[in-house]
Predict the 3D structure of the following.
Amino acid sequence: MLNRRAWFRSAAGSGAALALAPRLLQALEPLLASLQGTLLKKAIPATGEMLPVIGLGSSATFASVARGEEVSALKEVFRAMVDRGATLFDTAPSYGASEQVAGQIVNELGIADKMFWATKLNAAGRGAGATTDPAAARAQVERSFELLKRPKIDLIQVHNMSDVPTHLGILKEYKKQGRVRYIGVTTTFEPQYPGLIEVMRNEPLDFIGIDYAADNRQVEEVILPLAQERKIAVLAYAPFGRTSLFRRIGDRPLPDWAAGFDAATWAQLLLKFVISHPAITAVTPATSQARHMLDNIGGGVGRLPDAATRQRIIEFVDALPPAPPRGR
């Protein structure tokens, strides 16, 4: 059983193997061969459409690489994910060049029609209570259409509860016109949870996006049960935690009981915890490396933890010591 670093050393070999993309993917085939089965899917409650449970986010490292001139690594990420059925891509105009670069890549690779494209809308001014110029909001949506070069966008969500009445009203218009298939609201900030709950109770949402991980479970209390009750799909963000979970885990070996739900790495264990919650539709960890994308996909293959095993994961994570200072 391997953590990310150990798995990469064993699967990808020396750094020289990373020089050429085909050689990289060939080096990763031993892991892929061990992933028995296909990527799991869950239904979007509003329609019953099946969505792969593992997708790709574009904040953090993805956004950092997208700002550079060399984006070949991101092309390999998209090739790796789409070849194995992970078609969900979550982005936002505020993630630097992520939306623009991703739109360029999927069109260059000829895979735009295979993607489930989820982006966001936030054209409000800065500061608490900032209002939105509707024209600016519509211009932002049109820019997303321009970058993707598709007649429809699968999902647009109001980003971080920003001026929900204005933004959501505009998204309702796009949905009515048939240009946006699904609409929703996101937040990854705990102080915004009460507002999100109110919107969930009073607006016809197809999706929400929320932070959820083995060390960050507050949304289990109200938000996830409410999503089930209201038949709202849930995209899970930040699945590797709010407390530096990989650093807290360190070099600890993966427990033997992880094999009971087909987790071969710590990343897969943490992802399987998230997607095994019945309210979670899909999870979108961000990465700029194909090897991590493939590792993440493994989190959506095979068996998932049952209730007892989920509790075992919680107890394990809660007992971990704080993350050591960086640099050690």
Summary: The mean pLDDT is 88. The chain has one domain: 40-318. Residues 134-148 form the longest helix (15 residues).
